[in-house]
Design goal:
It contains four helices and no strands. With 142 residues, it is an all-alpha fold. The chain has a domain of 63 residues. The radius of gyration is 33 Å and the shape is elongated.
Length: 142
């Protein structure tokens, strides 16, 4: 092990060695401590030592983060709604095809067709138009 250490030390440029790594470890510990403190602040802990300016900065950072989270949530919900609309259109189309196979399209009048459809559903002339769901954005809070 000593031989490996000697070879390693010999290959390092002048001034790089044990002292360098001690400084590097100290810097990393300091960064870790700072990140832990920031995390506590973000969680609403240990805020009493902060100035008004620091609190406003923290509030601004949290609001920007919250805005990003809301945008991501809205995008996910919009994508899910689009997917569900596509599935709804497909199911509606399949239902119409099955209905036409069972009851035919020209020989049956609308009263007898509506009487055979379960759950109080009815078929109208605009039944080929698919249902669409939309996302409404909430009112902006002031």
């Amino acid at each position: 092990m000593n031989m490996a250490r000697q070879i390693y030390d010999a290959m390092q440029p002048e001034g790089v060695g044990y002292e360098f790594w001690q400084r590097e470890v100290a810097n990393l510990r300091q960064q870790l401590q700072s990140l832990k403190e920031q995390h506590r602040h973000y969680m609403g802990e240990q805020l009493c030592g902060l100035s008004v300016k620091e609190l406003k900065g923290l509030e601004s950072q949290l609001e920007m983060s919250l805005q990003g989270i809301r945008m991501q949530k809205e995008q996910i919900l919009t994508d899910e709604i689009e997917e569900l609309n596509e599935k709804s259109n497909l199911v509606h189309q399949q239902n119409m095809e099955l209905f036409n196979k069972v009851y035919g399209t020209t020989a049956v009048n609308s009263e007898s067709r509506n009487a055979c459809i379960p759950y109080g559903m009815s078929i109208s002339d605009d039944s080929h138009v698919p249902n669409q769901l939309q996302v409404r954005r909430p009112n902006q809070q002031t």
